[in-house]
Amino acid sequence: MHVEQIYTGCLAHAAYYLESKGEAAIFDPLREVDPYIARANKDNAKIKYVFETHFHADFVSGHLDLKKKTGAQIVFGPTAKPGYEAIVAKDGQIFEVGDYKVKVIHTPGHTMESTTYLLIDDKGQEHGIITGDTLFIGDVGRPDLAQHVVSELTEEKLAGHLFDSLRNKIMPLDDHLIVYPNHGAGSACGKMMSKETTDTLGHQKKVNYALRADMTKDEFIKELLTGLTRPPGYFPQNVLMNIKGYESLDTIKERGEKPLSPRAFEVAANETDALMLDTRTPMDFARGFIPNSINIGLKGNFAQWVGEMIPDIKQQILLITYPGQEEEAITRLSRVGYDHTIGYLEGGFDAWKKAGKEYETVGRIDVNEFEETYKREKPVVIDIRKKSEFDSEHVVDAINVPLNDINENLSRFPKDKSFVLYCAGGYRSMVAASILKQRGWDNFVDVIEGFDEIKKTSVEKTDYICPTTLL
Questions:
Q1: Which whole-number Å values give the CA distances from 430 to 70, 363, 420, in the listed order?
Q2: I need a labelling partner for 82 at 20 to 30 A (CA). Which of 108, 221, 381, 434 fits?
Q3: Which Pfam families is this protein grouped with (predicted)?
Q4: Comparison of pLDDT for 388 and 148, the residue scoring more
Q5: Which residues, listed in sequence order, are joined to residue 420 by a DSSP beta bridge?
Q6: How sure is the predictor about 191, in pLDDT bands with cuts at 50, 70 and 90?
């Protein structure tokens, strides 16, 4: 059976391409649809359907642009109420793609419209299941997201629905079926997903905690809800975009790909409420940046951190990128609904500097300097990593302020004494540094390459790295 997983690592997202006899289907596409169209053209195939497993929270789907550009029909599972023309399928309904069949299996729980698609080959044999966020490899979808859109859908109610869906719809299926989930490790849609992106259902029944055969519903709900972290703030806004509709990516790119000279960029920054977003590496940002700009590097989980750190998806954005990366930045912003880029700095930061414009820097120290400073001065040390990372191991006496909580915890950053920032590898701490600089802090340094380097070079020489078990 011709099934192809199209995986995008920075979002830990998997879309799927199915083709038979010149007909194709796309499952859970990302916002930019040209790669899917090109893939179908390679097979001389026409995209017949765009299947959506649910209204996604962590990205804006490309179903509307695919329909517009190819004429494909959009398919949702039962109970979905899209604000545009689409097929709302019945449980058990079968769609034909060439000689293949796609059977709708309604599996509410992650959301109420969540649907699994059973793939049946040209010989009538069941091949696999495209599970969306119902079943991951090693995990299942979190049931606490829909309540941020529909308040009466509590996480307990949805967890109960998910238990029933798994036991009554998924687990009775044959063990040989291949599980094709929507996400892998790194996605915020689950809590303990595997790095593997496919597996057999039979193996998942053996190793996935949520599929344990002797688990009661109450045990399932308790275990599923334990340890859930706060979902990113942009999730409900993405859900609404996927329900109601959105502008074409072509329109967004046309609006955003507007080159601005240093002078025009400065005028735009002063005369609008646009946020200046610098997407360069932490190292280059630290060496020089436009005052009041925020650093979230493209070489990292860019879209996810934009979603975490910029509360309003309608925020206007002015981009500072390396020359030639403007389109990539605009596209990756649009994946999570940030559609209001209004221009970019032509020539990048180098053009700004050559124009004699004011710029700032971030102080940084390497691990040897950190070790010496730590021993000599015992400075305030602030760890920007997630609580789970901090709880596992951290510098003794460090204060934990996770990056996604920084705006609510600015009072924990001293203004009357110097302090040191670190994260795991330097990416998140530079995001934090840029925010602190914007808010008026200038009395800190950042550790180059972060805790990973501190631990690697210093753990055998000092005792200042403290595992939780020793606290």
A1: 42, 10, 12
A2: 221
A3: Lactamase_B, Rhodanese
A4: 388
A5: 381, 445
A6: confident
